[in-house]
Amino acid sequence: MKHSLAFCLVFAPLGACAHHSGDPPVYEGAFASHGRNIEVVVDPQAVLLPPPPFTNKDIFPCVECHDPDFLEPDAKRRDLGEPHDGMFFNHAGERIWCLDCHDTEDGDLLRLSDGTTIDLIEAPRLCGQCHGMHYRDWQAGVHGLRTGHWDGAKEFLPCSSCHNAHDPLFGGLEPLAPPTPPEVTR
Amino acid sequence: MATFRLFARFTSGSLRLITSGNRTYWIWIAVLSVLSLAGLWEYFVQLRDGLITTSLRDQAAWGFYIGNFTFLVGIAAAAVMLVVPAYLYNWRPIKEIVVYGQLLAISAAICCILFVLVDIGRPERLWHLLPSLGHLNIPTSLLGWDVIFLNSYLLLNFGIVTYLLFNMFRRREPNQRLFMTMVWFSIPAALAIRTITAFLYLGLVSRPFWNSAILAPRCIAAAFCSGPAVMLVVMQVLQKYSSFHISREAIWKIAELMAYFIGVNLFLFGAEVFKEYYSATEHLIYMEYMFTGVDGHNAIVPWMWTSVISSVLAFVILLRRKFRENPITLNLGCALIFLGVYLEKSMGTVVPGMTPDVLGEIYEYVPSRSEIVITVGILAMGAMIFTLMVKIANPILHGEFHVNLRPGGTATPKSKDGTSATSGGCYAQGGSAEQLENPALSHFQTLP
Amino acid sequence: MKSATPNRREFLCVVAGCAAAASSGSCGDLTHSGFFQDRFRELSRAEIDQVLIRLEREHSERFGKECTVTATEPREDVEFGYALDISRCIGCRRCVQACVEENNQSRSPELQWIRVLEMDERHGIDFHYAEPYYDPEQVPQDGYFYLPVACQHCKNPPCVKSCPVGATWQEDDGIVVVDYDWCIGCRCCMAACPYGARHFNWKTPGISAEEVNPDMHYLGNRPRPVGVVEKCTFCIQRTREGRYPACVEICPVGARKFGNLLDPDSELRYVLEQKRVFVLKAELNTQPRFYYFMG
């Protein structure tokens, strides 16, 4: 299923994350800067991240099918065939596939290029490996939506709150009504 | 004290003058009253409902009111065309009629103020414009300057005319120093009201159509041909219906000046047209909207071509002395100038300046019924004020109403200054300028 | 300027005396009651407080719910700026609606501070090809990009210059505001604005009790009377309290950025330093604080 923009809207008031079981995950430490002469420091206290808004219960969690006890991982790049037919994948065309991001052993973890496995909630670190500039902008609050206070605590969303990682480009949105032309303003 | 008593007599006599007249006079007053009242009623509706009753919208925030204001500022300023030859050069044919030019200026200036008044959204807050009581935002606001100069000009002209007429009424020479000081101030004030009104437009960087340095000279040239055109027609009408007289020399001189100024106006306009079409920047679109329409929006196109053709025709006609001296072609020329300049300086200035709007939207502004009724009402009020003032000025200037005479020509038994009042009614209607022997006009000869 | 105020006050009191003094009591009340109220900029803090109390009472009565009217002042070392990513904006007009709701704009007749233009990609930013009335089933449409325009809060604002009564000015934090109780409605500022950002109340603004946002600022979203000009205030009632403007928080694609230009760590400074930025009609030297960028 395609994530819609409307989805992002639903999650925009991050008060929702307070209802998440347990403490909301807090991003650890300051984000490293990818650019020269750029020091983007995000106050970890200020960055509250909600859980990734997966909606398609058919494909999540991965281990439901990819239980290493029952299914031997096959790291060979190939057409996946029938069980994955319901999944729409449109991310960088042929250049990447599942195991470029998901951990081979545990599909519900992500694996960075240096081999470190991270939780799904930390996806921005993974995304930032390819999308460095967007990652940097996002850290600075310039890519993506920010709410809260311009002079204090800010709330913003991780990549997968707005983008479907499997199909990151947005679809369209129905525009609200156009303004009333002056000819008919009475 | 004596002055006050005299002034009271002057005032009461004036009141008697304007409340007596023949049938034509009363029909004329009745027509103007009806039009004024219709305008007042529409204005009341506009006050009650807001400016939504107009066709003005955010895309075209100024329209018919401000357009007419702009044109009439020119008419008001044009009195200076008579003031300079009359008072500074002491040229007699013009001197005889200069007061009427000033009366026209007063009426036009009042109309201008009324047009601004009806255009603003909160007229009850006008006191905010008063310096010290409110906050007049000068030097940066050009409307602020316009308010100052328009009112000063109105007061100056009203002062000059009243002072002159009152002194003629009491048969005394006006205090030259005081009188000439007012005259000297009124001349730059006339140029100032026209220039500042032009600056009101050209100071707006957002509207390339107006943001042109020759807008002010264009406006002055247009004022100095359209103002006299109105005056000539009005004065001929006055000559027909009242004891007013204008000499042929005066008419011809005014017509000649008119011809030059419509020529200058056309030249400056041509320069503007060349600049836009030859450089063909994105600013060309306003000119295109005027002359060819844009994307099928062409409500103003026929009017603009009418304006250009009228002005050119008027120039061609008035350039030839033979036509200027022929009353028919002269009046045709005046009518064409009026039409040409009115269309150019009212709607032809305001509408293309705002269409398309700053974000490229084309809203075809056409004045609403209510705007037209209010505009006609204001013009009717202006005409009424002019009529009443002429009704008072005429007999004074012709010695038919002065301190020793009751209006209507009956001599009072005893005259204050000892002069006999018999000359009061001697000025024959239609007499030539050379015959002017009226002592009431004597001050003209003694002016510098 | 200040020294003249008491005289003016006395004069107004004399004028008012003829009309209403008998019924309204003290002179102090009169000068703060609507018609005789002074220009906001010349009111003392105590006078402002009196005005705010009166407005709160009036609005609460009118809408049948508790309304608060503040006049929070600009902060030291703050100059607001705004940045909009035109490579992200999809023209969905969510910002327009959020702005209308937050800022108590008239619903009938419709009045909107933000105008979203659909621009033809073949012509770039050429307003001749701008379409504000686009209404497809889905946005963005192929071949078009979207350019929302509202008040640019210029550093050199032509509107402020043109106002004959000083009813509009630039605050110390850069917000260009209008005193709705001082504006005479001459619309010089609308003629002067190169961005079509100023809007006139051609009719008494229509807004219902359910729709009204009760958190108001004197220079911001308090309900406006007929016949005066209004415009975007960067959500002064929110931003002076440290919050983001409503349009920033609603934007579904996060195209709108807001912050303090004087703070080197703000989003705004990041945009100015890292992105390709332009302002609308730069040639007019209005020096907008509203930047468009391509992220």
If you had to describe this structure to a student in words, what would you say it looks like?
The complex is a heterotrimer of chains A (186), B (448) and C (295). Chain A is mostly loops. Chain A has helices at residues 5-11, 123-130, 132-139, 159-162, and strands spanning 109-111, 117-119, 146-148, 154-156. In chain A, a hairpin with a 5-residue loop joins strand 3 and strand 4. In chain A, helix 2 (123-130) crosses helix 3 (132-139). The longest helix of chain A is centred in the C-terminal third of the chain and has 8 residues, at 123-130. The N and C termini of chain A lie far apart (45 Å). Residues 1-53 of chain A have low confidence and may be disordered. Chain B is 67% helix and 0% strand. By secondary structure, chain B is an all-alpha fold. Chain B has one domain: Formate dehydrogenase/DMSO reductase fold (Up-down Bundle), CATH 1.20.1630. Residues 411-448 of chain B have low confidence and may be disordered. Chain B is globular and about 70 Å long. In chain C, the strands form five sheets. A four-stranded mixed sheet of chain C has the order 10-2-12-11. The termini of chain C are far apart. Chain C has a domain at 2-70. Chain C contains ten helices and twelve strands. The interface between B and C is large, with 49 and 56 residues.
Task: Give a short summary of the structure.
Chain B is 67% helix and 0% strand.
- Sheet bearing the most strands of chain B, described? none
Largest pleated sheet of chain C? 4 strands, mixed
- How many structurally independent domains of chain B? 1
Which consecutive residue ranges of chain B, at least 5 long each, have pLDDT under 50?
411-448
Q: Give me the strand/helix succession of chain B.
A: HHHHHHHHHHHHHHHHH
- Unreliably modeled segments of chain C: 1-6, 13-32
